[in-house]
């Protein structure tokens, strides 16, 4: 485990987890800014990479106040979730820990609540025992 990163196993394949997370974002009116298919781009370059996709998303009403208070937070916003398959075929969800981002950019606890949605967004993708 790396400091500042939360990683949790998914109960779904990469593509299934991506589809489910896209649906959750849509349902909650959270804008999906980009979906980067790292493994697809690797394949296009003639390289092999296990399924690996990055979703970049957010809500300007939540992120803008943070970036106004701490402009360097724009380095880490919008929010991102990496969905990747490990060498054993297990899918993992990874994201920046909001507490880490709070310390990194000196964000107030009140504003940190604006980015503390990642656990909620991913809870249905993670097995209940985790």
Automatic annotation (TrEMBL):
Record Pfam families: DUF302 (PF03625)
Record-linked InterPro entries: DUF302, TT1751-like_sf
Membrane-spanning ranges: none
Domain DUF302: 36-98
Family annotation (PANTHER family): INNER MEMBRANE OR EXPORTED (PTHR38342:SF2), SLR5037 PROTEIN (PTHR38342)
Name of the protein: Putative exported protein
């Amino acid at each position: 485990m790396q400091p500042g990163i939360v990683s949790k196993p998914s109960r779904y394949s990469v593509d299934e987890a991506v589809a489910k997370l896209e649906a959750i974002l849509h349902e909650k009116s959270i804008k999906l800014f980009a979906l980067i298919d790292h493994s697809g781009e690797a394949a296009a370059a003639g390289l092999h990479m296990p399924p690996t996709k990055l979703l970049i998303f957010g809500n300007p009403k939540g992120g803008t106040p943070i970036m106004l208070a701490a402009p360097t937070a724009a380095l880490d916003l919008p929010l991102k979730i990496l969905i990747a398959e490990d060498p054993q075929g297990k899918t993992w969800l990874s994201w920046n820990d909001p507490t880490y981002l709070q310390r990194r950019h000196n964000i107030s606890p009140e504003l940190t609540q604006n980015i503390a949605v990642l656990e909620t967004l991913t809870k249905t993708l993670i097995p209940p025992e985790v």
